[in-house]
Amino acid sequence: MHLEDTRRIPPPDPDREPLKVNVYERMSKAAAQLTPLFPYDSAGAIIPAGAVLVGGPDMEYGHFFHWNTVNEVAVTYGASKAMLAAGQIFVTQQLHGVNSFLRDQKDPDAFAVMVITQHQSASGDQKEALIARCAKCKAELVRTEYDATPHGLPGYDAKRYGADEDPVRQFATLAGSADFITARNSDEGRACAGCGHVNDRFPAERWGWERTVLQTRTVNAAYHSLAQAASPAEAAS
Predict the structure, then answer these.
(1) Distance CA 52, CA 213 (A)
(2) Which structural domains are found in the chain, ordered by start?
(3) Which residues of 22-34 are buried (b: 16+ CB within 10 A; e: fewer)?
(4) How far apart are CA 201 and CA 63, in angstroms?
(5) What is the pTM of this model?
(6) Cα-flanking dihedrals φ and ψ of residue 204, to 5°?
(7) Which DSSP symbol is given to 222?
(8) What are the mean pLDDT values of the chain's consecutive 10-residue runs (237 residues total)?
């Protein structure tokens, strides 16, 4: 067997047309941190997701922990006055802390543009969790665990965040993160059972997860409304 026969790249998956994006252009218009750059999230897919973190007098990002059963790799596409250097690449641990990664969130000259790439499970279930800890005693305040098993695996549940016929799937990581915000900003989620400290509200607006979930739900509703409006015309033709 010739060497070139053993190194042939297989043709692209017909369900995943090869695409390219400019991360700077795409993230300049993104509605949320961890916005997927491509429309593919099924089993075995590699999902690069962008984040734009910027400082300012009113900026506050908070802190939480993310746990994932699949691997994540982060690449910094530019940074200033951040804890990450431009061009830095690192692999996260399955349980890792998340914050702004800026040395001073109040500094308007501080920023970081990142891409966090998640490799969807190719077999078996996928699980994720977001965890908040008390700012005073560090005890666990909230743990939101969710099933992130991707489309194409037996454990996938289309009705978990939408419907089978929706043309745009909710990205489970963002949908689960929005659920975390609801729990974290409740009265029970702010009050520490250990020391009694009432924690500040989590700054949900800096992350945009709730907005993205709402927008995804809305575009799916818009698609169904157009299909319903077209039905009489199709029947008459």
Answers:
(1) 18
(2) 21-225 (2.60.120)
(3) ebeebbeebebbb
(4) 11
(5) 0.90
(6) -60, -35
(7) H
(8) 67 85 97 96 96 97 97 97 97 96 98 97 96 97 97 93 93 96 98 97 97 97 94 69
